[in-house]
Amino acid sequence: MKNKNAGGYTATKVRREKKVRETVAFVLGVSLAVFQVYTALFGSFDALFQRITHLGLSLLLIFLTVPPRKARTSRNASLIGIFLPLLVLASVLYLVVRYDWVTAERFTFVTPLSWYETVLGSVFVLLCLESVRRIVGLPLFCVALLFLIYPLVGHYLPTVLHTRIVKWGEIIDFNYLSLGGIFGIPLGVSATEIAVFIIFGSVMMHTGGSQLINSVALAIAGNATGGPAKVAVVASSIFGTISGSGVANVATTGCITIPMMKKAGYRPHFAGAVEAVASTGGQIMPPVMGAVAFVMAAFSGVPYSKIILHAMLPAILYYMSLFYTVHLEAKKLNLQPGLAEISLKEAVKGYGHMILPIMSLIYFLVKGFTPRFSAGVAVVTALLVCQTRKKTRLPLSAVFNALYDGAKSMLIVVASCAAAGIIVGSIDMTGLGPRFGSIFVYLSGGNLEVALFVAATVGIILGMGLPTTPAYIVQVATIIPALIKLGVPTIGAHFFAFYYSCLSLITPPVAAAAYTAASIANSDGWKTGWTAFRLGFVAYIVPFIFVYKPTLLFVGPWTEVLIDFLTACIGVYFLSASFEGFMFERLSLAERVVAFASGVLLVIPTLWISVAGGILASFIVLLNYKKKSKKKSICRRLTC
């Protein structure tokens, strides 16, 4: 007898339908990945068509692979699983069939909508919101829904929130039948730049690129003092240049590095925090930078090649600070160097050829090719190079699996960018952005310090509820124009907002990267989160520094850039020593305060301030070294 559930739906039929959905989803996912690589190499289609295809295939994939969170019976889930993809097809195929009408013959906000365009457009907008709810979560869903409703009720609201009367048809017109709203800049960047980089990351994962990174990191840092923690820093920083996702980095490298750190003697919460901070650095480490680099280039007008140049020095300081911290922690706990399980020679012999795709990516970027073309070449290079060695060789089925996983990995970005389009579209339609900027300037009293503090707080709060990309995009329309109005350089304002958008990954109470690491380390999430906050403290200071003097963003004479960077490198060491309470010997509370002050002064890029910091630093070094020498002398006498 066949098993039946409450609705009389046979288990056999459920399994059959599930298998069909999985097969269809696999074909669609591979098709989406091939489409992205093809258009990266041979040129994108017309802007709207590129974005329609990108979003349409992604929505189908979301509704086929991510089940609804509440479905009382298998039959209900099955019906929803069939019905929603059909609605996606109907709304997207209308745009494809009537493409000439939509792009060339009608005018946004002028040509009236037919009843079926209103229905299809409404369905399409709701489907985008549902995709966000399923794959991203309720916070972004609620924010996008709030901004979708705002134009309809804005004329009832007071003061800065008041707007003209906007009808539902205008919202549908803008979001469904134009290059604004859902099909605006955020989705455009996702459809051309971000997607192919995510596919590249997936291909590298499947072809042995991640094994190469971990092996090289082990070979380089595994035998050093605090080696396992340094391996985490090195591996996560390198892998971050490919994936650009803090949580993904934790899940990928953390499974290897966190147990290694615990085995070496690091406390579980510290091991988890190190991995969380190291992985979060993938958001700020060029060239991918969590995909925000591409969005920033689109909104700021600064070329992508310059964006990654500006990002380089702050990212180096970030990782240098973490490297100092794990070294001092190992010294404080008297941890012995570990033993690398694989030599550098063995790592290079087994996976060394997989460095070629990364080198090809960097080469084409440096030569001035577009990021999407460079990434497309890197994908093809990875698939070809991996076939040259038995250890990394992939059969055709594994190649398809790599492309499919890449397509699935981009879904959260696609849904986030669609939601960000709704948010930015509502701000554009109502003119809220300039008004919000004016009120922001008014509330800060024109005081830049107050404005920066408020902007940092807003950035962290937005980052707690939204992925980094939409959190940054919301600030593009609100906070960043206000900062520029107060005199902050354009690139400084964009980087300031970006940094505080991604720091929520290690900022309690949300701290998603820290909690992910805590689950791997079997440590207390709250304690891990606050430890990660302490380890990543430099990242909270640096944005204030480059607002006032952007030499750390490679802006200014090279001599000033070099001097300011070198003093900052020394400064982050003393900040790390202050937080760790250790230098050559344990630091007293007073010594830690002096070390912290000297670190802050050295990081500030002003000559006389850095000199003052250097004097304090010299004092604390001599004092702590003298304490160490005295302790050694006492030990010798006791031994004698």
Mind explaining what this structure looks like?
The protein has 640 residues and is mainly alpha-helical. It folds into three domains: 11-183, no CATH class; 187-321 and 330-427, no CATH class; 556-640. 76% of the residues lie in helices and 0% in strands. The chain has 29 helices and no strands. The chain has helices at 11-42, 47-65, 74-97, 99-105, 115-135, 138-153, 168-176, 185-207, 209-221, 227-243, 246-264, 268-280, 292-300, 304-333, 344-351, 355-366, 371-385, 396-430, 432-443, 448-465, 468-477, 479-485, 490-502, 512-521, 525-535, 537-548, 558-580, 589-603, 607-639. Helix 10 packs antiparallel against helix 11. It is globular, with a radius of gyration of 26 Å. The mean pLDDT is 82.
Summarize the main sheet: none
Please report the total strand number as a whole number: 0
How helical, in percent, are the residues? over 70%
Count of folded domains: 3
Structural class: mainly alpha
Could you tell me the radius of gyration in angstroms? 26 Å
Output the number of helix runs: 29
Q: Strand fraction band?
A: under 5%
- Amino-to-carboxy terminus distance: 86 Å
> What average pLDDT do the residues reach?
82
Which secondary structure elements does this structure contain, and how are they paired or packed?
Layout: H1 11-42, H2 47-65, H3 74-97, H4 99-105, H5 115-135, H6 138-153, H7 168-176, H8 185-207, H9 209-221, H10 227-243, H11 246-264, H12 268-280, H13 292-300, H14 304-333, H15 344-351, H16 355-366, H17 371-385, H18 396-430, H19 432-443, H20 448-465, H21 468-477, H22 479-485, H23 490-502, H24 512-521, H25 525-535, H26 537-548, H27 558-580, H28 589-603, H29 607-639
